[in-house]
């Protein structure tokens, strides 16, 4: 039937059963039905009516519709890869209109719509969406075909009514299916009509039909082999209580323009991250985990389950994953303003005023408090730093990469795996001994808070000697009651009370002893001003006092560098007597160096 829109619709009127697969005569479409109507004496997989649907220029298209009690799939076959627009048309012709004022007008039909394996509509109700029964409605979807076939899946999820207007009347209902490429195809399909003499017609049919059938067999063979190959991966994913969406490698490759370097957002320890756009229009960040990361399939599946179970406004959302062969990828939400370190240290037009900075600290603390105390299982991030805190369009912070952290049991305080983290943000007990608790994240948060306050990184060799190391400088200012000199000079104004409170909390977080550092829930309360912070709890960490000694090797090397030639072998001492460079070495060897007991303990560990 040719509709008034000029589209020629092929009839799909095969008598289907409870488990039937059928390919249309033109070989362009296939339909698969699964399910039996419960307690229905004469099951029919069609819905026929003489009523004229409104809201369409071709009401005849809606007088016959396909219905299924459970699962109905349509396959578009032999398609050229690329973007397509899929149009599905519906009309609810089985229920009486509300104006009839009978119980048969109370029927509801609800089902889900999946395209290319992704759920596009949930609890779709034809009459509700169309504004009444016997009214036509069309829904368009943008999809990407990457393996030469299209799959449209309508699924009854057990919702709605089951006995209106008759017993066993439910399930998805659809009138027409249409797919059109959004590009000019270079591969021609089977023509709508074949002209020519009888011999020519016989030749075309004799060649086209066997080739089409062979092509169809090959397509389904490839699909079967690929799905068989990935069965083990799918079984592991199906076993997860909180299963994320799965994406094919071809789909993510198309979304990122074949992982174009122009779409690269950055690269972490486990691999690069790319910006991509899915076929449904969502902009995402695709994390391509490197095979060299030594992360096995079971570890990856565990990571997915962990991330999927964790939900918080200050954590980056996971959309799904890809697990094809040795390919491992995570698909996250894309955050417009990228990472915090780029906002603070980078050259960009993003200016963070004081309320925004203080809010970033508070919201980040809330996200960590959730990971440590509220999520199940509890999670230690292990690498809290400015580059792992992302900013959305409203400059709300979201912690990323928490799914890469290792889980820990309540009874375990040590780990046997390698130390993972970034120098400058590592807590002393974790860096030296691998001693891992949530207090390692508290330390990292303290460093990040000081960076947000000062607008500089934790180490900057371009600054004056006393300012090179941020923690040293912060403590020196605090001891001399000059803490507010730490503030970023680009800030035109700030709340002194909030700034003083944040500095105190940050210094408390970077204490040497993990027992002294507060839990993140207490950090949130202190920042909010709900509880007072005791200044007596703050003391200069031992790792700063123990490492603060005069490095005599530097003075010796400087002395040696000042000698332009080998002939200049003597200088004069403070009494005017000549002295050689060897005497400088003697002074270095004879000079006492103050080594504390805690430094020795840190070096030798627990007697190892």
From TrEMBL:
Q: CDD domains from the xrefs? A: STKc_IRAK
Q: Which residues cross the membrane?
A: 203-225
Reactions catalysed, as given in the entry: L-seryl-[protein] + ATP = O-phospho-L-seryl-[protein] + ADP + H(+); L-threonyl-[protein] + ATP = O-phospho-L-threonyl-[protein] + ADP + H(+)
Task: Give start and end of each Protein kinase domain.
Answer: 259-533
Q: Which keywords does this chain's UniProt record carry?
A: ATP-binding, Glycoprotein, Kinase, Membrane, Nucleotide-binding, Phosphoprotein, Receptor, Repeat, Serine/threonine-protein kinase, Signal, Transferase, Transmembrane, Transmembrane helix
According to the UniProt record, one GO cellular component term is: plasma membrane
Q: Which Pfam families match?
A: Malectin (PF11721), PK_Tyr_Ser-Thr (PF07714)
Q: Which GO terms describe its molecular function?
A: ATP binding; protein serine/threonine kinase activity
Q: What is its EC number?
A: 2.7.11.1
Look up and give the membrane topology term: Single-pass type I membrane protein
Q: Where is the composition biased (Polar residues)?
A: 558-567
Cross-referenced SUPFAM superfamilies:
Protein kinase-like (PK-like)
Asked if the Swiss-Prot or TrEMBL record annotates the protein with the keyword Repressor, the reply is no
- Work out whether the entry's keyword set contains Membrane: yes
Q: Cellular location of this protein?
A: Membrane
Region annotation Disordered: where it falls in the sequence: 558-583
Q: Which protein are we looking at?
A: non-specific serine/threonine protein kinase
